[in-house]
From TrEMBL, chain A:
The chain crosses the membrane at residues 265-287, 307-325, 357-376, 388-415. This is Spore germination protein. InterPro entries: Spore_Ger, UPF0353/GerABKA_families. GO terms for cellular component: membrane. Belongs to the GerABKA family. It comes from Cohnella lubricantis. One of its GO terms (biological process) is spore germination.
From TrEMBL, chain B:
It comes from the Bacteria. Keywords: Germination, Lipoprotein, Membrane, Palmitate, Signal. It is found in: Membrane. GO terms for cellular component: membrane. InterPro entries: GerAC_N, Spore_GerAC-like, Spore_GerAC-like_C, Spore_GerAC_C_sf. The keyword Mitochondrion does not apply. It is a lipid-anchor. Transmembrane segments: none annotated. This is Ger(X)C family spore germination protein. Residues 19-190 form the Spore germination protein N-terminal domain. Residues 203-356 form the Spore germination GerAC-like C-terminal domain.
Amino acid sequence: MIEEVKAKLGNPADLTTEIMDNGYTTMELCFFPSMCDSHQVKDGILIPFSYRFDPDEFRRMLRSDLDFTYAPNQDEWIDLLLQGCVLLQYEGKVYCFDAIRKLQTQPEDTEVEASLQGPQSAMTEDLDMNTYLIRLRYNSPTLVIRKLQKGEISRTRINIIYDRDKVNRQSLEELEKRLDKVKTKLLQASGQLAMLLGNNRYTIFPVTLQTERPDRVAQFLNRGKIGLLVDGSRFAIMLPVRFFDFMHAMDDDYEPFWMGRVIILFRYIGMMLSMTLPSLYIAVSMYNPEFFRVQLAFSIDGSRAAVPYPAFIEVFIMLFMIEALIEASIRLPRFVGSTAATVGGLILGQAAQQAGLVSSIMIIVTSVVAISNFVIPNSSFSYSIRALKYVFVVTSIFYGMVGIIVMSFITVVYLCNLRSFGQPYLALFLPNDKQPSRRTE
Amino acid sequence: MFKAFVVLLICSLLAGCGMKDIDKRFYVVTTGVDWTGNPEKPFRVSLRLAITSNKVESGSSRTQIQTVEAPSIAEAVRHLKAFVDKELDFGHCRVFILGKDLVANGNPDAMSWFARRRDIQKVAFVGVGEPDALSVLKVTPESERFPGNALFLTFGNEGTESSYTVTTYLFDLTRRHFEEGMDPVLPVIRSLDKTYQIDRVLLMDKARMRLILNPDETQLYNMTANEAGKSEVKMPYRDGRIVLTVNQIRTHTDIAIGEVPLVTLKVYMSGILEESPPEALENDWNGIERQLGKRFSSEVEDLLYKIRDAGVDPYGFGLHYLATTFGNKQDFAHWKSVYPEVRFKVVTHVKITGPGVVR
């Protein structure tokens, strides 16, 4: 066996091959020590083979232990080795021992979708751990987990999970069709898979939702949605989704009813502001100043007196600064990040206005836009809103207030047109739970 | 994709030319129109323009006044554009002041300019300047933070809410000008040294000024016609005076259709006594209510007869009459012919809710 493996792998330096002899018999062993858990190898193979060797018991163990699988097929050997299994040949038969090294042994803390009073555990970058977390939360016999692999080189394991009774069959079929079409060399993150699965490359709004919260996955499964877990990524992809799912934070379900509603309302207001405020500023200060109250119009007029450029250039300057600041604070290492925020904040806050580059009202507009964008609970959705803001800005430069109104209308029409895996994106109401379950399996 | 881009590019060419930055506009805050008496150029148009500044504090408002004489208002404004460096914007012109001479002599059709300009808000306030509009424009109140704000606050009821001040909106003036059986009413703005005095009202027929009410009559008019709360009813009582602050006032008009119509005005008011001799209310609560009501009724009746004799109808009794009859031309002709003899009856119900103190 060893020769064949070595020939196929090209004798890599990190492959350990051994012919072991305990005085009674010999066993051939080969594995990648870096990919295997050495304790498991020791406990599972070496101890029974050396100190406590009993030929009958050893044979029985090989045949009945769950960790050992019989691997007669030569073509499989390399795959198994690369996944972190130990191959051993005993009495002419080749067995595979599962000793994959696990980096994560417990759930991580939520980082992206923090919650005040909800569960604090998030998914990890290990597929089996994630599957366990979901099984734990959605402890139902109808939960289906299907396995597949994607990526020619990475061979990333993917689990499709859904509730067999509640799942939307139409979406499931659609998903299968699209998964068949997915061809990629490296699959490293769930976001990548989400993009490959998406409607087309030019969709402005995300049609799948990525979440790191197992409680959210469970909630979605209960609503008949489908989840995709990608090995090596702490985010599950949920589909099909609606517009309103993106604006929903798990805390809304854990807080008292009215408080939750009020917060949701604020979130929608924040979204609208972050999307339209810069364009409103342009439209109102360039086309329709009578839209303001007279007092506000005069103070904007006064504060803009020192600004040499028209309002839209001012907006572009400030929006570029704030986007650069946000981008910088995400990408920078944590200990430099605070410096960037301080420097940027100072420039945005005071200096730019004193230098007469922008008006003081524009600084307020910019900060409202930035802050209310963070109110959106889902990051890919908040990216969409961030991008859409520029469409509104450009429209308002040419058409003023009318442009903004027409653009909002177009946005709503577009949202109505959008489908997430066959389901309407802007559907207001969930399908009724009382509908007869469509059980087919 | 390329096609969509080209369409977008073409669309961007459709942009209008309404684009003008907010700081490139000169805001007119008050417009004054005076009568010059010169038949060649009868109108003197004055614009009070706001000079905005970054700092906002009391007394920091600065304005600039531009005046020109012209045969019509539209020509005057067109001409005034040549006097200033920024585009004139009437979007925030909330106050229009007509000179007293203009109201007395002018041609009301020339005023249609206000109603026709699209950038003039129809909720703008209209008043009469005494002695003329320009002198009212020149007043710069010390307390003004924003240019022109003092008049906005006065008329808009955002700041002071005085029962002596009647507010007339531009749309209402236009409506009353054309409506049969209802005549325009305008507040009189008088310029004092550093402030305005707005406690009179000017009554017009369809074309000219007819009557100016004094402050007391103005308050009575405002209470009965506009149901203005925060007003007062007063009367002498024994050796002191009783002042009732009216919190709520409701009026109801009934017109009995007869040979000579009888207009019954029912007034319901309630409020607290702000001034009264000691122990007066405890002794005769109902009596005081009755006496106040009686006195108020007679005062209002006097006012109504005075207004009737001037030949104007600011209350819109004529309109009410038309609404209760078939409202055709004969009806209105009949009303016009009998209006000088119309009789008025005012019934007032006063309710004193308390003496204003807790004992």
